[in-house]
Amino acid sequence: YMTNIFNYIIDGSDKNMGKKLLKKWFRDETLIELEESIIKGNVDAIKLEADVLYQHCKSFYSKANHFMSGDYLNNVMFESLVHLSSTLSWINSWLPHLKRSIDSTELDTASSAVVLNADQLRKKWSFFEYSDVSLLDNKVGSASLLLNDESLGRFNKLAAGFKDLKLKSLALMRFDIHSRCLYKISSLFIHNNDWKLEVGGSEIDSNISGLISDLRRIEDRLNKQKMEHAKDTVFTGIDMINNMAFIRGARSISVLNHNGIKKMERNINVLQHGVRNMYHEVSTVTTLGHASTFYQLAGSNENELIAKIEAQELTMFSADDLKTLL
Q: Beta strand pairing status for 99-101 and 145-147?
């Protein structure tokens, strides 16, 4: 039943869903393995995850390959995904603890039959002969399912299915957030390829403010479903995605002056602070420092830039990024 719900969230009623980026990412086995690793806490996989994600949308900043709003889930589907993920988290919190395997060969012996007399069975397994309610609560709270070898195999398969579905639901949530970021940031570049501004200005681009609003709505949905700790899981790596989006998007800029650089840095800083406040753990740090440094370098002269490259100070940028700067 829950697998059907999950499949419907991915497929929806849109016959063109197969063209959407979410489904392309979800079909990538390497990417799914990376998502599972990140969800389990391996932050070292974040950079590789971003590289694989971008392989499916190399020229996201061009009009020909522009993201569509259909490349991520609509509000109803995302709400369903959050609810499904919350339910799966609850099931996984108690289902594995119900398992208790038994050795059927021991139960068949005469000695076991003597040991398991009526009084002991009543004391160990009956829920219906307790006059003390507190004792009944304790007994129900520690209830187990006695499973022989055959039943144990079926139980393990069921439990593994719920665990796998939870991982997939969190992975899809992460993909959705990444897709929203790429859609909004790519729109910033597609609609503004000329950054030669006469005045600096402090206004925030509507695409960036819209992205922050989307992310805050997601945060609010997670809070309402009591998934505060899951926020760090689904938002982890968003800084890497956004850094790369701002840096690679610069390849579409035809003209850039000092005022344009200031406006770009303003948008980067506002998005950085907006995202940082969404994490549950205060210790979690997210930064768009690489993107900010990139545009600061865009305002330097050629000699300064070459000197930094020769001094190995810009190893965080790819060769293509450095070509864009030059």
A: parallel
3-state secondary structure at position 256: strand
**Residue pLDDT, tens place only, 175-226:** 999 999 999 999 888 877 678 787 766 778 899 999 999 999 999 998 888 7
Q: Which two tokens stand for residue 166?
A: 């939870």
**What beta strand segments (E) does 41-97 contain?**
none
Cα separation, 133 vs 278, whole angstroms: 43
Cβ neighbours for 92, distance < 8 A, ≥ 6 positions apart: 159, 162, 163, 166
Residues 197, 257: contact at Cβ < 8 Å?
Answer: yes
Closest C-alpha among 39, 7, 21 to residue 175 = 21
DSSP letter at 15 equals: T
Alpha helices in 95-148 (DSSP H): 104-107, 110-115, 118-125, 133-141
Q: Give the position of tokens 């200005």.
A: 201
Neighbouring-strand partners of residue 149: none
46, amino acid identity: I
**Tokens 């004792």 belong to which residue?**
135
pLDDT of 55-97, one tens digit each?
A: 988 888 877 666 676 678 888 899 999 999 999 999 998 888 8
Detail the DSSP E strand segments found in 128-265: 145-147, 194-195, 255-256
Rounded Cα–Cα distance for residues 7 and 295 (Å): 42
What letter would DSSP give residue 101?
Answer: E
| Residue 204 DSSP class | P
- In a 3-state reduction of DSSP, which class is residue 1? coil
pTM over the 0.85 mark: no
In the chain, the amino acid numbered 250 is: A
- Residue 61's identity, in one-letter code, is Y
Nearest residue to 69 via CA among 167, 176, 169: 176
Structure-block tokens of residue 234: 């689904």
DSSP of 140-179, one letter per residue? HHT--EEE-HHHHHHHHHHHHHHHHHHHHHHHHHHHHHHH
